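Supplementary Methods S3. Input chains for the assembly prediction are listed below.
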Amino acid sequence: MGSLSYQERSLWGSLAAELVVYLPYFFLNLHRANSVNKVAGTIFAIIVLQILLQSIIAAATRHRIKDERDKLIQLRGYRAGYLTLAGLMVLGLGMLWFHTLVGHNFPIHAGFVGLHFLNVFFGMLVISDIVKTVTQIVAYRRAL
Amino acid sequence: MPGLRNTIRELRADRNMTQQELADAIGVTRQTVIAIELDKYSPSLETAFRIARVFGVPLERVFQYEGRKR
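Predicted structure tokens for the full assembly:
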């Protein structure tokens, strides 16, 4: 880690926090009944873990400047994250349209559909965020 | 790869300057200096002028444009 800049270390910290919190959430809870409380708990956990990790990284790094290359890489990351989010949204809407077209009715009365869509959109946000972080890390590793 | 070549490594070596010292002098990270030296990243015009000023040489002595590489 000695050759990494502060921004790069911070990104590795973010990725670690995202994987530690989101992977168990999506893989352990995928076939269980999810609730709003679980989503809220996951968001709370990621915030706490991010604050903890970023504080440790900041304390352990002497040079904490952000230069023009960091900003360029950040922009690339946000562009990749936005395109992923937009693509997933279009895919999700297309699948919803397809289900409606072939006559699948969602059990709206059961209150299930709300939680289902909450998880789908939460998943889209998580995937986009991970794509953004990974894009930035790859750009740093490739020297841009 | 940008079509920009530079002589930063040689200019640094002539002055016994480390990458970190150059980075501090021009206000960027050491990793950015490494990326510029390896021709992986073309700096902004402002940073390019700062580098030339640190070495006390004209801009074209530090950077040479060799056309777009594929």
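Residues 45-55 of chain B form the longest helix (11 residues). The first strand of chain B starts at residue 4 and ends at 6.
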